[in-house]
């Protein structure tokens, strides 16, 4: 006889509560379901399919008498099919951090090239930047955080790819300080293909910059930017973070 084990998420403050149902027979797991609390309540009330013997519902206040599930309507198991959204150009990885809260992070590769930027009120044309990974952390339609890591110019980015520090300013341990600059709402992840332009056009300050940021030996940020105008960024200047891409992803 199959056994139905039900566990409830009782956190009603951060979105729709849900429950997980596991169907077992002996030590074999026959099926697993995850559904909203409302759908589960409807399934209990719907006895059109078949009647079940009383089963104990896990995760609720213990009672002397067993509660009964009077019926079960079969629904598709969402754990057997998970789709990513439509992804942006140059997307390297997409991670669902919390599907209930609609929280996700998307890593987009930015090729090594020269970008127009500015340092305080000074416009700087064609400054060499290394190859980079931009990590956009999104909740709902809002970008809550941006992360930037440098990557050396060597083939496809994989789990064992070494990450390096962003060699300029406004980034601390990968996390970007955007100041008063605000990203637009995200209605389609394809928008992330171009949002790096907001970072490059925002005026840079000296925030978080130090000699340990790179191996150029140049301690003045304005001098560093100027030295890289109309030049490619030398990969040998990159300072390692001593972490791989896979290890970085585990932190989210």
Structure write-up:
- It is built from four helices and 13 strands.
- The protein is mainly β and 252 residues long.
- The protein has a four-stranded antiparallel sheet with strand order 4-5-8-9, with no helix packed on it. Strands 1-2-3 form a three-stranded antiparallel sheet. Strands 6-7 form a two-stranded antiparallel ribbon.
- Strand 2 (18-25) and strand 3 form a beta hairpin.
- Mean pLDDT is 83; it is low at 47-73.
Radius of gyration based on Cα positions: 25 Å
Global shape = elongated
Q: Describe the main β-sheet briefly.
A: 4 strands, antiparallel
Alpha carbon gap, first and last residue: 41 Å
Q: Percentage of helical residues? A: 10-25%
Structural class: mainly beta
Total strands: the figure is: 13
Order of helices and strands: EEEHEEEEEEEEEHHEH
Low-confidence stretches: 47-73
Strand percentage: 25-35%
Mean pLDDT: 83
The number of helices is 4
Spatial arrangement of strands, main beta sheet = 4-5-8-9
Q: In brief, what are we looking at here?
A:
With 252 residues, the chain is mainly beta. It is built from four helices and 13 strands.
Features of this protein?
252 residues; mainly beta; four-stranded antiparallel sheet; three-stranded antiparallel sheet; 4 helices; 11% helix
Question: What order do the helices and strands come in, and which of them pair?
Answer:
Blueprint: E1 3-8, E2 18-25, E3 28-36, H1 37-45, E4 91-98, E5 103-110, E6 113-119, E7 122-129, E8 131-139, E9 142-151, E10 162-164, E11 171-172, E12 175-176, H2 196-201, H3 221-227, E13 240-244, H4 245-249
Antiparallel strand pairs: 1-2, 2-3, 4-5, 5-8, 6-7, 8-9, 10-13, 11-12
